[in-house]
């Protein structure tokens, strides 16, 4: 079974507990549980990793290369706008990835409009809340040539 790695960056562990007006009321565990089941229905094994630390995210991407991960779906959270280290790790990994943001980063503060990752991503999904992860899994499944579920 092809393996997908879902990565969530800093503070996303707080989902459902703070700022529901911006990020919704579902917890990260609840969202991950749903997308894991969705991935399985498409014949994909989805492993999740969340960290509040830039170096841990870099190390996890490096590990994904060694594990033969087929696709990465990543919400880098605030590191989107700051992290050349994460960009370099994703470039070095050679694993295709999709960047996801729960909120529409283009409709918020100007500093959120720039991403260090978007130009090297296969695609970017913003503004659809937790459904964005599901859309990203669908896109990854299609890119990997997985048959559609009924
Ligand atoms: O919209 C997104 O998904 C973001 O990646 C979320 C990041 C933000 O820095 C990006 O600009 C856009 C922030 C994640 C913080 O998550 C929280 C969740 C609940 C309560 C507080 C923060």
From TrEMBL:
<keyword id="KW-0028">Amino-acid biosynthesis</keyword>
<keyword id="KW-0456">Lyase</keyword>
<dbReference type="GO" id="GO:0019631">
    <property type="term" value="P:quinate catabolic process"/>
</dbReference>
<dbReference type="GO" id="GO:0003855">
    <property type="term" value="F:3-dehydroquinate dehydratase activity"/>
</dbReference>
<comment type="pathway">
    <text>Metabolic intermediate biosynthesis; chorismate biosynthesis; chorismate from D-erythrose 4-phosphate and phosphoenolpyruvate: step 3/7.</text>
</comment>
<dbReference type="GO" id="GO:0009073">
    <property type="term" value="P:aromatic amino acid family biosynthetic process"/>
</dbReference>
<feature type="active site" description="Proton donor">
    <location>
        <position position="101"/>
    </location>
</feature>
<dbReference type="Pfam" id="PF01220">
    <property type="entry name" value="DHquinase_II"/>
</dbReference>
<comment type="function">
    <text>Catalyzes a trans-dehydration via an enolate intermediate.</text>
</comment>
<dbReference type="InterPro" id="IPR001874">
    <property type="entry name" value="DHquinase_II"/>
</dbReference>
<feature type="active site" description="Proton acceptor">
    <location>
        <position position="23"/>
    </location>
</feature>
<feature type="binding site">
    <location>
        <position position="88"/>
    </location>
    <ligand>
        <name>substrate</name>
    </ligand>
</feature>
<dbReference type="GO" id="GO:0008652">
    <property type="term" value="P:amino acid biosynthetic process"/>
</dbReference>
<feature type="binding site">
    <location>
        <position position="81"/>
    </location>
    <ligand>
        <name>substrate</name>
    </ligand>
</feature>
<feature type="binding site">
    <location>
        <position position="75"/>
    </location>
    <ligand>
        <name>substrate</name>
    </ligand>
</feature>
<dbReference type="InterPro" id="IPR036441">
    <property type="entry name" value="DHquinase_II_sf"/>
</dbReference>
<keyword id="KW-0057">Aromatic amino acid biosynthesis</keyword>
<dbReference type="InterPro" id="IPR018509">
    <property type="entry name" value="DHquinase_II_CS"/>
</dbReference>
<feature type="site" description="Transition state stabilizer">
    <location>
        <position position="18"/>
    </location>
</feature>
<feature type="binding site">
    <location>
        <position position="112"/>
    </location>
    <ligand>
        <name>substrate</name>
    </ligand>
</feature>
<protein>
    <recommendedName>
        <fullName>3-dehydroquinate dehydratase</fullName>
        <ecNumber>4.2.1.10</ecNumber>
    </recommendedName>
</protein>
<comment type="subunit">
    <text>Homododecamer.</text>
</comment>
<dbReference type="GO" id="GO:0009423">
    <property type="term" value="P:chorismate biosynthetic process"/>
</dbReference>
<feature type="binding site">
    <location>
        <begin position="102"/>
        <end position="103"/>
    </location>
    <ligand>
        <name>substrate</name>
    </ligand>
</feature>
<comment type="similarity">
    <text>Belongs to the type-II 3-dehydroquinase family.</text>
</comment>
């Amino acid at each position: 079974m092809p393996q997908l790695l879902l990565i969530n960056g800093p503070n996303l562990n707080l989902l459902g507990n703070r700022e529901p007006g911006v990020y919704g009321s579902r917890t990260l565990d609840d969202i991950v549980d749903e997308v894991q089941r969705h991935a399985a229905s498409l014949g994909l094994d989805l492993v999740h990793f969340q960290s509040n630390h830039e170096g841990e995210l870099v190390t996890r991407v490096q590990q994904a290369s060694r594990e033969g991960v087929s696709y990465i779906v990543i919400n880098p959270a605030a590191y989107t706008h700051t992290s050349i280290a994460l960009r370099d790790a994703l470039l070095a990994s050679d694993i295709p990835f999709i960047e996801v943001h729960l909120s529409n980063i283009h409709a918020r503060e100007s500093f959120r409009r720039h991403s260090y990752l978007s130009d090297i991503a296969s695609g970017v999904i913003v503004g659809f809340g937790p459904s964005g992860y599901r859309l990203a899994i669908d896109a990854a499944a299609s890119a990997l040539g997985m048959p559609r579920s009924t």
